[in-house]
Structure formats: C-alpha cells, structure tokens
C-alpha cells in the first residue's frame, strides 16, 4: 500500500499505481496545486497538490478532523481554500462566483454524502427526477429502472424514501449519481453507515462510474474501500 500513498506534506499525489482503466482514460480532470486551509489557528492542510484523472478512483484518508470533508467541500466549491488553485478542465474553480459555482455543481459534480441527502417525503423516482430536472428535459431522461436495477432496487421507484432502510437510501443516492452521470464524484464516507453487502454495492457502482470515465474521490476510514481505489491521498498525517 505504501507505494500508492502520498501525504499532504509530501505535496504531490502522483498516481503510481493507476489501474488499467485509469491509464486508458488517462486525461487529467482535476489539478490541485498548493492548497492550504486553516480554521482559526488550526491548519488542516498546507501546500497540498494532486492530480485526478478521468477513470481514477482516489481514496482520501487521514485521522478524524484532518480535513477530508473540508477538502471535498473545497473540490465541490462549497467551501473556499485559503491559498492554492483547483483547476477542473483547466478552469480555476476557486475563483468561481456564485453563479459559476452553481453551474459547476449542477453540470460536473456528483456528491455522495453519508446522510444520503435525499428528499425523504418523496418517492425514489421523484428523487432521481429532481437530480435531472435542472440539467435535462424530461424527454431526454433515462429509464430510471436501469439505474435502480443496478443498485438492487429494480421496480421500486414508487416507494417513499422515508420508508427505506439506511442501506436502501444510500443506494437511491447512488442511483441518483448513475442517472446524473457527473464528471467528478465526491463521496464522503459513503459506506460509513452501511453493512458489508451494501458497502460493496456502493464501491462497485463507484468503480463502474470510474470505468465510464468519471473521476472519483472517496473520503474514507475503511481499509477495504481504500484497497478498492487506485490511489491514496493522506491528509493530516
Ligand atoms: N466551518 C468550520 N468552522 C470551523 N471549524 C471547522 C469548520 N468546518 C470544519 N471545521 C473543523 O475542521 C476540522 C476538519 O473537519 P473535517 O470534517 O473536514 O474533518 P474530517 O477529516 O472529514 O473528519 P472525520 O473523519 O471525523 O469526518 C475539524 O476539527 C472541524 O471541527
């Protein structure tokens, strides 16, 4: 594992063990350079640099409180960095105004949170609809059942989300990503609240998205999830 480890002190997480797919997809989507972030006197990371390619799954690890979620939030333009730049498709997203940030989150980004971030008082299908409403007219929306089949929820589109178990809700969140087809997926402890089987479904669906050309960052404490990724970036170590 050590040869695929990079640290925030080591500055650059150059992919040393890219999987075949990542090599094939190859092209760099995200170039993070010299990222620095503090809250008050507390420095989370300093001069952190890494590249992320289409097709690559990058595990983001570090002790609790080391700033993994904060880094994901910075990559998702939900939070700002103190210093450094994050180029996505060559554009520095740290300089985005509110309008550009919203468009970036709508068109490029897929977020997978531990708390699922679903509309609980709506059906599974309505939740998938919401994900696509702003980006695709109804006649260009895919057959949701294919995505639901993929996550083991085939034929259940009319069920209310609040009636689902935690694992099922996370699988709805996954289906939402699958139909949205973002270029960049940021997953924050996506298996944290799940049993092994549901965890495996999440990891394999993320892998499939990477194989389709998506770049995936997974913040995790789970060794199996780390092992399933192509590369590892450690913060705060
Ligand atoms: N808006 C904020 N204002 C002040 N401090 C914050 C803010 N957001 C996060 N922090 C602090 O920054 C540190 C890093 O938080 P973060 O959630 O990014 O860590 P993490 O590595 O994801 O932790 P965990 O593994 O426990 O989820 C924590 O000490 C947290 O309390």
Automatic annotation (TrEMBL):
<dbReference type="InterPro" id="IPR017911">
    <property type="entry name" value="MacB-like_ATP-bd"/>
</dbReference>
<dbReference type="InterPro" id="IPR003593">
    <property type="entry name" value="AAA+_ATPase"/>
</dbReference>
<protein>
    <submittedName>
        <fullName>ABC transporter ATP-binding protein</fullName>
    </submittedName>
</protein>
<keyword id="KW-0813">Transport</keyword>
<keyword id="KW-0067">ATP-binding</keyword>
<dbReference type="InterPro" id="IPR003439">
    <property type="entry name" value="ABC_transporter-like_ATP-bd"/>
</dbReference>
<dbReference type="GO" id="GO:0016887">
    <property type="term" value="F:ATP hydrolysis activity"/>
</dbReference>
<feature type="domain" description="ABC transporter">
    <location>
        <begin position="30"/>
        <end position="237"/>
    </location>
</feature>
<dbReference type="InterPro" id="IPR017871">
    <property type="entry name" value="ABC_transporter-like_CS"/>
</dbReference>
<dbReference type="Pfam" id="PF00005">
    <property type="entry name" value="ABC_tran"/>
</dbReference>
<dbReference type="InterPro" id="IPR027417">
    <property type="entry name" value="P-loop_NTPase"/>
</dbReference>
<dbReference type="InterPro" id="IPR015854">
    <property type="entry name" value="ABC_transpr_LolD-like"/>
</dbReference>
<dbReference type="GO" id="GO:0005886">
    <property type="term" value="C:plasma membrane"/>
</dbReference>
<dbReference type="GO" id="GO:0022857">
    <property type="term" value="F:transmembrane transporter activity"/>
</dbReference>
<dbReference type="GO" id="GO:0005524">
    <property type="term" value="F:ATP binding"/>
</dbReference>
<keyword id="KW-0547">Nucleotide-binding</keyword>
